[in-house]
Amino acid sequence: QSMPAPRDFQATPKYGLNYKDETVSIPVQHHIQRGRLNIAEAFVLPAKSDFSGITFQWLNFREYWEIKPEPLMVFASNGDLREGPRFPNGFYYILADDNWETDTPQITAKYRCSNLNNYTVYEFNGVESSLEFLNDKGERARLGFTRYRGISLAGVQYLPGVKQDGLPVARGRPKIIIDRELVDRELREATFTLDYNGGRFHTASLASVCTAEKEESANYEITLADFVPEGDLGNWQVLGVEIGCGRSEPLFKEEFCLVTAFSVTLDDGLLKVTVPKRSVLKGETVRQSAKTYWLSCQGKKTGTFEVFFNKIGWKEFAAKVPRGKWQLVAKSNVILPSPLTVLQWESQDLGDVTLVFETLDPLVKKVVVSDDSDHLVMQLNVPRGNLEIPLENFADLYEELETKSKIELYLEGPLGRSGPECVAEVFAGIDVEDVSLFIAEQEDEYVLEVAFKTNYPKLNRLCFRGSTDNGEVLFQRPLRINPDYFYFKKDEFEALVLQAQIYYTKEITSIFGAVQEEVICYEGNIHLPNVQAVYKRMQKEGLLLTGFTYQDRHYNLPAPYRIENIAVSSRNFAGEELLNGTLSHKDKVAKVYFYVEYKDEKPIISVLWDEEDDALQYDTREGSLFWEVRAGGHIIGPIENLEFQFSESDLK
In this model, does residue 652 exceed pLDDT 50? Predict the structure, then answer.
């Protein structure tokens, strides 16, 4: 293994064999030369049968290779493992895990595997036949057995997971490679068929189309482009090749879409598609640069789009997005909410958390788990589709955390890396801002609304407390919603001004043990209105109107307007009584109706009108209040939020 090495770093790379209950270190030889770390090859024999994989660690880089049996494995009669899916005729042992089954009647024997739990052995004698397995997800695996194995498609590179109208998409110069001896001895009567863009294009004997680069070559080659007129070759083609001998099942069959100047990759969680000149793309485009388009594929199984090809028309493509599902599990096997939210002094709790991952798509080849600053990067291969990733390596990463950090998960496949999913958020602390306290007075109780903004998603970590000036706590509890509401009886309080605090507790650990410490996020005052007391004093003393504010300008009345004989009207609502009284000024007397409310912690008359429901107006030239109709630029109204005082003093 070789990789770039930072200058002046001498950290030792570490390999470990993973067993069920322990990891055993593997000694390796290494040296740094010309800015690269070079690690020598080492051979190690696992000591126990519960061996599960190999771990590599160096600086902030961690990688894991899970080593487990494949779900389907084919062994020849001599015990050798064979690669498929096409095999020569003969007797085979097929090992299949419990998710894969077959009901083929040609199976000669079936029994449990003694060395591998959850595996079954099938004995099968394959002679010009096939064997199909089906798993619990509805996926199929077909194993073929024939003496005609020396036929293959070469010269193309498939775009993994990309389909065009259901056909695999490839680039390159396709050709068929056929074993020369197979053609000369057994396939002289075979037929070669080529379909082009949906129609039968060429049919001939196989021997007539086979050529060899050299006389002594072991293979024949059939270059498919040789059969298509050069003028017909474009940026989009559909090719279908079939070789048969009059049998019901062809010896070889391939169909695919061939494209040029076309590519599909994943780029920072977006599908990146480059199309040929004179082509355009339709889809959920996020941005575009020349002939390259970036498309949104977040939360999708497949990204779909259409491409217009010159002289061809619109063609629809689908690209699979690497997908997986995961959950966070505590040591007690309790499933935790995700993403996990952790405060800095709780980061050691990550040592008890495991990320359990299951791939939902075979395109996922590697899982990357890292913090968002790449201080720790874990790369884990996914050979079987399932992983358990302890987060304990992140537990010591946040001792000096000053801002929020994330642990993120990426999925990597042949097309590139998918966008990050947040596994956990670690907060240096809880911030609270824009706190608003609104108090409403009811007949016998107060209702307090507490609204705020916070960076921390778990509101119940924050507590709200109300207390007197001398520190006596009157009520406190965790916040549950935003805004939150508190209800308390009037007769429980004597003071009209309370101290308000929003706080949380953190645990400080030292050599003397762990102690709880409060962190205050907000402090302010709650001014309790006492409208009932205002009503009583109004009824006893009457009041004098002294001024008002209109369109952000304050006006003082040159002479007071007195309101006497104040009473609560029968038309009122609980906590918002309608008052009436007699307004007198000089020689004018009128019956008026009005509401009282608190504004900026002082009682005011919010609105006032006469018996004919006319709103109050003000003549700035004369400095007088009136109700009758007048016109002119010096007339303003309707007048609201009137200030007043009692005959003795302001109500405090």
Answer: no
